[in-house]
Structures are given as C-alpha cells and as structure tokens.
Design goal:
The structure is a single chain. This protein is mainly α. About 70% of the residues lie in helices and about 0% in strands. It contains 4 helices and no strands. Helix 2 crosses helix 3. It is globular, with a radius of gyration of 10 Å.
C-alpha cells in the first residue's frame, strides 16, 4: 500500500477534510493534498509522516 492510499483511507475513515488531516499530521494542507494525489514529497515531509505514523 502506498502512503498516499493510507493517508486517503485514514482521512475518509475519520471523516476529515484535507485541511483537518494536514493539521493532525503537522504539514501544510497543500502538501498533504499533493501527497494524496501521488506527487513526490521531500525527505523532511516523509520524516514528519513517518514520525506521525509511528507515534502513539
């Protein structure tokens, strides 16, 4: 499963907008939107996502 698919499924499951999901993850909404569309991300953004995914 791709990170984009995982984020999209999580956001829909939680009934959140892209802006709400981006705030919870800790990245700008425009970046979150690009990730969900499958565009490449910077290493720093990937690190933020991985920390968020692995946090309690």
């Amino acid at each position: 499963m791709k990170i984009a698919d995982l984020l999209c499924a999580w956001r829909h499951h939680e009934h959140m907008s892209i802006r709400e999901a981006a705030v919870r993850v800790g990245i700008p909404w425009s970046t979150y939107q690009r990730i969900e569309k499958g565009y490449p991300m910077q290493g720093e953004t990937l690190a933020i996502l991985l920390r968020w995914l692995l946090s309690d």
